[in-house]
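FAQ: What does the model actually see?

It sees only this:
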Amino acid sequence: MTIRAKHIFFAAFGLMTLFVFYLYETPFLDSRSPVWQHIEPVKWMLLPHGVAGALALLLAPFQFSARLRKRSIRAHRVMGRLYVAGVVVSAPLAIPVAIILGPPSLVMAATIQSCGWLLTTAIAMYCIRRGDIRQHQEWMTRSFPFAMVFVLARVILAIPAVRAMGEVGFVSVVWSLIAAACFVPSIVISWRALFRRGTASVRRPDLLAKTTRAAV
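And it is asked to produce this:
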């Protein structure tokens, strides 16, 4: 198997996800932890939100596997439906959790992230229902970064210098990542198309020269 950029990306993101779960989620194993006291008002919303979000994060990389789609389109569809279910459960619950736990400066950020995640996933589903595979893949590429905000924000906030900034650093990191989730996927998609066009334009003069010589 040839190692491609996406394999390196998902491997790195997988390691970051494990780091985040170890650093931030292990305190939940201790009922006497201060974390438990903090989440007490939302614990019954946080459980389905976290489980559904973790399911979406786990399944998303497999949806980008061309090998899996070729070997078992059924498995691809089943995991895709589970991903969508995870988004439908996890995304809306993030809003009341943010409202209750705060800080207030992040309520709108949670709302935009949740709506962006739901909207891009819904468009991806609409495209595949119409049989437009290319647009489905592109909108799934736009969907996953909204889920990545959860992991990337916590990785960055683990940096001592960022953590020392307090709420200002927290809000800045989250808003920056949500903004990136809105436009970076489109750059990635367009960059691939531009690269292919650039390659084609380089080849056209050679083809034209050969055609001219053959005509002469």
